[in-house]
Write a structure and sequence with these properties.
Elements (H helix, E strand, L loop, with lengths): L7 H6 L7 E11 L9 H5 L5 E7 L5 E5 L9 H5 L6 E12 L1
Antiparallel strand pairs: 1-4, 2-3
The structure holds iron/sulfur cluster (SF4) (2 copies).
Amino acid sequence: MQIGDSGYLSARFGKQNNSMFREMVMNRITIIAEDCKGCRICVKRCPKNCITMSPHLNKNGYPYAEFKSDECTACGFCYYVCPELGTITVHEEKQGPRNE
Ligand code: SF4
Ligand code: SF4
């Protein structure tokens, strides 16, 4: 799901107050390496250090950002600061429900 979709808030907050079940959430981002210009703004802005720069270059000759961590909170900061619209997509994924 891309942040800003109409279902984002319900996906993020829905059913979390259920006392019998808790949905495990695995957040992540995807980055289109070929669209990245290597500015590193997302790397600096991520509060959880989830993004790093690849040691490789994309086909346009730029170093590109890569997602590296499962600590992502789906805050969306990287999405909003990236000057290359559509390069970063924020996903908030549910795995569950799981009995508590
Ligand atoms: S959504 Fe937030 S926590 Fe996740 S990678 Fe982007 S800036 Fe970091
Ligand atoms: S902010 Fe966007 S263009 Fe800049 S390094 Fe991150 S993904 Fe690449």
